[in-house]
Write a structure and sequence with these properties.
Blueprint (H helix, E strand, L loop, with lengths): L3 E6 L5 E12 L3 H18 L2 E7 L2 H7 L5 E5 L7 H11 L5 E5 L5 H4 L6 E4 L4 H19 L2 E6 L2 E6 L3 E7 L2 E6 L2 E5 L3 H9 L4 E3 L4 E4 L3 E5 L2 E4 L4 E3 L2 H16 L4
InterPro entries: CheY-like_superfamily, LytR-like, LytTR_DNA-bd_dom, Sig_transdc_resp-reg_receiver
Keywords: Phosphoprotein
Organism: Coprobacillus cateniformis
């Protein structure tokens, strides 16, 4: 997921650009959710960032919404679905999610490493320090993961993250690139762009004029490629079997 930038104005008229990060907190205890939210509000000021934190008391509510998050904090001890089972389901949808487990004790930490989380937060008197260390770790990873391309926008040029691209479509002599922040144009051949995106691993050319980011594909059926935002694209007959194979391989790479 590409970062979204917010403009913040100060009394002196100086403008500061803030990076926005979406955070999910999944815990059956509302007090814990509110405590995590409070800590992220402190990190807003301390790190000069903007964290939007959404809490879920029920893990199923999170799974149904299918929103994109930069951080996912999961309580291990939940009655309806424990944190490990939830992590399996999340990784099955998107193997690159940044999951951080939470617990009130050390009992589950060793077992938790089997799921390769990005960290653990103990819900005790050291929560604030522990949370900050884990957040900083993920921020460093996100910065390294972000690879950008420069595209033509209405007001000039715009630099966007490859991860924010939903799909690309040939449109005359240019290619329209549909992203989480808008639609942009790039003057390049379909062959060149396809080769460029293939190096990143998660893109697939489904026909002569369209390339899709597999991270945003919800399902494929009857040559239809259905994205998570509801967009429906059509794969060519020639590409269909290979697409099915690539998509199955992509979805099967679940991290444990």
């Amino acid at each position: 997921m590409g970062r979204v930038f917010l403009k913040s104005f100060y009394s002196m008229g100086v403008m500061k650009i803030l990076k926005k990060y979406n955070v999910a907190v999944i815990d059956d205890d509302m007090k814990s959710i509110n405590l995590i939210k409070e800590e992220f509000m402190k990190l807003d000021k301390e790190l000069g960032l903007h964290f939007i934190t959404i809490g879920y008391l029920n893990p199923l509510e999170y799974l149904v919404e299918e929103k994109e998050y930069d951080f996912i904090f999961i309580d291990i001890d939940m009655p309806k679905m424990n944190g490990f089972d939830l992590a399996k389901k999340i990784y099955a949808i998107n193997k690159k999610e940044k999951i951080i487990f939470m617990s009130e004790s050390f009992d589950h930490i060793l077992e938790g490493y089997l799921y390769r989380p990005y960290g653990f937060v103990l819900k005790n008197h050291l929560l604030a320090l522990n949370l900050k260390k884990n957040v900083q770790k993920v921020l460093d990873i996100l910065d390294k993961e972000d690879i950008y391309m420069t595209l033509i926008a209405q007001n000039g040029y715009q630099k966007i993250s490859y991860k924010s691209i939903f799909y690309c479509r040939l449109n005359g002599r240019t290619i329209s690139i549909f992203t989480s922040s808008g639609i942009y144009s790039k003057c390049v051949s379909m062959h060149t762009l396809s080769n460029e995106l293939n190096q990143l691993g998660d893109f697939f050319r489904i026909n002569k004029s369209e390339i899709v980011n597999l991270n945003y594909v919800k399902e494929i059926k009857n040559q239809q490629v259905i994205l998570k935002n509801g967009t429906v694209l059509m794969a060519s007959v020639r590409k269909w079997l290979l697409l099915r194979e690539r998509f199955c391989n992509y979805r099967s790479k679940v991290i444990y």
